[in-house]
Design goal:
The chain contains 17 helices and 13 strands. It is α/β, with parallel strands linked by helices and 524 residues long. The longest helix has 36 residues. The chain is globular and about 90 Å long.
Length: 524
């Protein structure tokens, strides 16, 4: 029989009475102390070794991407226990970062957070708009059979809305391959309706809704530019391109459905021009193809990573997390030595983005990924992504797009060409947007959120006939970050860069001329 550490020899009866008395006192103390502990523990938890909320919020220069998966100020749920995250700092940190990445706030259609299409000066008129967007919510980009992290979850890709507008969209949207080969074979413009399980890397129902809402949002923000009277977007002034990957093509279709939703008639065809590969390199019609695809792009990137110490001891400090994940889910030996954290973690992120109620995955022994471990994995994935595409390789990768699609079309608008495009819409991947920002000198400090958008606006000052460029990322102006590189002061609320400075930014400097570009890429 277990002895109490403070007991002393006595009669058997008195010992039993003493035990009962101590038990009763302990129970009374527990009943009294429990409410006090419940009230004060949250404050003690956040004052002892507090973990700042900002640890889970990443910024692009001075731009904070505000998102909210569940809407409002409702407390987030710890999906493993179905309890509130309010007093669980690890759950709260992970949920905050997940919300930012998933970017479901688009579904709330909050126009107050978007600054597109508006400047304070009445002497300025909008001339041209370029919107480059990442695809929306998708299923994992690699097969479940490759990793098998947790039990498989369902990803729905059938269209939710089966009403007339989707049928109308089939009539006015067409694919226009820029080459005889489409990398993924035959691609249907719409995947169908109802309950349809997603394939690998497909745009989900949520992704369709995100881009349809984004199209509506952009139409609302540029309503005065489109025209208050007709409210119709002229198809002849609209250029749409996408990589030849189903999820970006479907994102383009969903965006156009929202963007053109108020058009009175849709009897004309709007082609979605397909560009091979995951970087938009094919020039628009009428633009001379000067910068060809970089033949040594992968080699340039690997050398650039080595020069920036991407595979140095800094990365090795995080590698134990990859080993822990591999051991937890018995992943193949090859994954333990390769830099695959983003591919591994993608299987965790996608389940949380597609359905916020999905719990973190567990292995066959019912050992689950904790919110603390998930937060550490997310931090490592962000760290890796931020260094995966250094600036030199980013310049080389995105120069064809920035010079052919953006700068050349802007130059035509500045020259007063009548058949210029008013809107240039490009749908691509996180890799492309990340590299464009890196090439511009505005690096993203983390993994690119779903349905993120980078906007270039061309403005004309009517009184002096001067042209300016404004750059926005997810609705927030970031032009100020470019002025330090161009060493040019900004105009109008520090948001507009003189077009000549913008042109110089894209045309001069390392690897931005055709000779050094071809030499770096090994092009003839």
């Amino acid at each position: 029989m277990t002895q109490w550490c403070f007991s002393s020899p006595s009669a058997p009866g008195s010992s039993m009475k003493r035990k009962k008395t101590i038990t009763a006192l302990a129970a009374l103390l527990f009943v009294v102390a429990l409410p006090v502990w419940y009230l004060f523990t949250p404050f003690m938890r956040y004052t002892e070794n507090p973990r700042p909320e900002s640890d889970a919020v990443l910024q692009v220069s001075n731009t904070n991407v505000k998102v909210d998966v569940q809407g409002g100020d409702q407390p987030r749920l710890n999906t493993a226990t179905n309890q509130s995250c309010e007093f669980d700092r690890n759950c709260k940190a992970y949920s905050s970062r997940l919300q930012q990445y998933c970017h479901r706030s688009l579904l709330h259609f909050d126009t107050s957070e978007a600054a597109e299409g508006a400047v304070s000066s009445r002497d300025l008129e909008l001339v041209q708009v370029f919107i480059t967007a990442r695809h929306g919510d998708r299923s994992p980009a690699t097969p479940y059979s490759s990793f098998k992290i947790g039990a498989p979850v369902s990803y729905q890709c059938g269209l939710v809305d089966t009403h007339t507008k989707w049928q109308r969209a089939k009539d006015f949207l067409t694919l226009s391959p820029l080459s005889s080969k489409v990398r993924n074979g035959h691609i249907q413009l719409f995947p169908g309706t109802g309950n349809r399980e997603c394939g690998v890397g497909m745009l989900t129902q949520v992704g369709f809704q995100q881009h349809s809402a984004l199209g509506l949002l952009m139409r609302e923000k540029y309503a005065s530019f489109i025209g208050q009277e007709s409210r119709d977007v002229n198809p002849n002034q609209l250029y749409v391109q996408s990589t030849d990957v189903p999820r970006t093509i479907h994102s383009a279709a969903a965006f156009l459905l929202g963007f053109l939703s108020n058009n009175s008639e849709l009897r004309y065809k709007v082609p979605i021009h397909l560009s091979p590969g995951i970087v938009l390199q094919s020039p628009p019609p009428g633009v001379k193809h000067i910068f060809g695809s970089c033949n040594k792009l992968i080699k340039v990137r690997l050398e650039d990573q080595e020069n920036t110490h991407y595979f140095s001891e800094e990365r090795a400090k995080f590698h134990h997390m990859v080993l822990r994940l591999c051991n937890m889910f018995s992943l193949p030996e090859g994954y333990r030595s390769k830099p695959v954290i983003n591919e591994l973690f993608d299987h965790i992120l996608t389940r949380g983005c597609h359905n916020p109620g999905n719990p973190l995955p567990c292995n066959a022994n019912k050992e689950c990924i904790s919110y603390s471990f998930a937060s550490d994995l997310f931090a490592f994935a962000d760290w890796t992504w931020g260094r995966k595409y250094p600036q030199v390789s980013s310049i080389v990768a995105t120069l064809p797009f920035l010079r052919h699609t953006v700068l050349k079309l802007m130059e035509r608008a500045v020259a007063g060409v009548e058949d210029r495009y008013s809107f240039v819409l490009s749908f691509t991947h996180d890799t492309t947007l990340t590299q464009i920002l890196n090439a511009l000198g505005v690096p993203l400090e983390g993994w690119m959120p779903y349905a993120s958008r980078l906007v270039f606006e061309l403005w004309r000052q009517k009184s002096q006939d001067l042209y300016f460029v404004r750059v926005l990322f997810n609705g927030r102006p970031i032009t100020e970050a470019l002025s330090s590189r161009s060493r040019t002061p900004l105009e109008v609320d520090n948001q507009l860069l003189l077009f000549s400075s913008w042109k110089s930014l894209l045309s001069t400097g390392q690897y931005r001329d055709i000779i050094s570009y071809n030499r770096m890429c090994g092009n003839q």
